[in-house]
Every structure is written in structure tokens, then in C-alpha cells.
Design brief:
Blueprint lengths: L11 H13 L8 H14 L3 H6 L1 H12 L10 H4 L1 H26 L8 E4 L3 E4 L12 H27 L5 H4 L1 H18 L7
Antiparallel strand pairs: 1-2
């Protein structure tokens, strides 16, 4: 991390704090939506991956742990993990899990099922997480279900990022991060539209 004290070098605090808060109240998981929408909005507005490259708190966290603290083996990520096939395939899988999460939220909202007070790691391992549920008198059940599902996705992706950090270079997760792939797609489309002549301008 740079030693000139730029404010965005410390955004790793936000990423770490998000995970910690989820242990105390699962409703903090909703804050993770910022990590979804801000990169997409900035990519659509500016046509660059400025958020991913400079402001991503998770990327800053991996740089701190793997780079500054030396917890990374600093090896190149395998070529197949850099390929479009893997990155887009992982994006499709990730978005499928996101849709499943939304479906479960809808079922709770419709009264077809009750809230599952558990966090699912790696989309397979269910951990009881009832200690983090808010008071029963507050949020609607569907908002609680969404929080559990979204926190599961955020925690799982963080664990994958940490594993990639340890085995390879600190920010290897950024190579196949679904949000990074989506922002890259947005930037590609935006650049293509900018160079494509509009009707009547030729």
C-alpha cells in the first residue's frame, strides 16, 4: 500500500467492517449492495474500471493482507483462470446463485416459506446464523431472508478471494471477480458505442 496516506488506501476498513457487522446483525448485509451498484454505475458513467482499480475495499484488503503483510505466495494466477471462458462462466454461475437468492427471498415475501436463519458458504455448507437475526419486532421477514442470502454471497466471494490471494498474487480475485467482469463488459460496450458512427454522421 502506498505510504502517502491517500484516503482510498484505507477503504479495506469498510470491507472488513462489513463482514464483522454481519456477525452482530445480519441486516448490515444490505450495505453490500453498494459494492454491486457503485462499480456498475461508475463504469456506465465514465467508461472505465476506476472503481475496481482504485476504490474497491475488497481489493484493498487483499493488497494489505497479501502484499503489505506478506500472506501471499505471489505466484501468477493460472492461465485458464484468466480466460474468457472461465471468467464468463463464473459470472453466469454467480448470477445464477444471485437469482436463486432472490427467488428464496420472494418465497418468504409470499409467505410460502419461513426465513432460513443460516449462512451458506461456498453455496454448499450451511452454518447456523440465528444469533445475528434482528429483533422479531423490526424488519419484514423477506428483508431478513435477503440479508442472509446476500451475506452468504459476500462472505463466500471473500473467502474465494482470500484463497486466491494466498495461492497466487494478492489481488488474483480481481481477475475473475464477477463485478469486475461486468464492469469490463460495460466499458467494452460503451467504447464500442463511442467509435460506432451514428446514422447520418458518416
Amino acid at each position: 500500500m502506498s505510504g502517502n496516506g491517500r484516503w482510498y488506501d484505507y477503504l479495506w476498513v469498510a470491507s472488513a467492517l462489513y463482514l464483522v457487522l454481519g456477525f452482530f446483525n445480519i441486516m448490515f448485509a444490505w450495505l453490500g449492495l453498494l459494492c454491486f451498484f457503485i462499480p456498475l454505475v461508475t463504469a456506465a458513467a465514465a467508461g472505465t474500471k476506476g472503481y475496481c482499480n482504485r476504490y474497491c475495499g475488497r481489493g484493498k484488503l487483499f493488497s494489505l493482507l497479501g502484499g503489505t503483510l506478506g500472506l501471499s505466495r505471489r505466484r501468477d494466477i493460472p492461465r485458464w483462470m484468466k480466460s474468457k471462458r472461465f471468467r464468463y462462466g463464473f459470472l453466469v454461475f454467480f448470477m445464477t446463485m444471485f437469482v436463486v437468492m432472490l427467488w428464496n427471498t420472494w418465497l418468504v415475501a409470499a409467505g410460502s416459506r419461513s426465513v432460513e436463519e443460516a449462512v451458506t458458504l461456498l453455496w454448499a455448507f450451511r452454518l447456523p446464523w440465528d444469533f445475528a437475526r434482528p429483533e422479531s419486532s423490526s424488519p419484514a421477514p423477506w428483508t431478513v431472508q435477503f440479508a442472509y442470502g446476500f451475506y452468504s454471497i459476500m462472505l463466500t466471494s471473500t473467502l474465494l478471494g482470500l484463497l486466491s490471494m494466498v495461492l497466487f498474487k494478492p489481488r488474483s480475485w480481481c481477475v475473475y471477480c464477477p463485478m469486475g467482469t461486468m464492469t469490463q463488459l460495460i466499458c467494452s460496450v460503451k467504447k464500442r458505442d463511442e467509435v460506432t458512427p451514428k446514422p447520418g454522421k458518416m
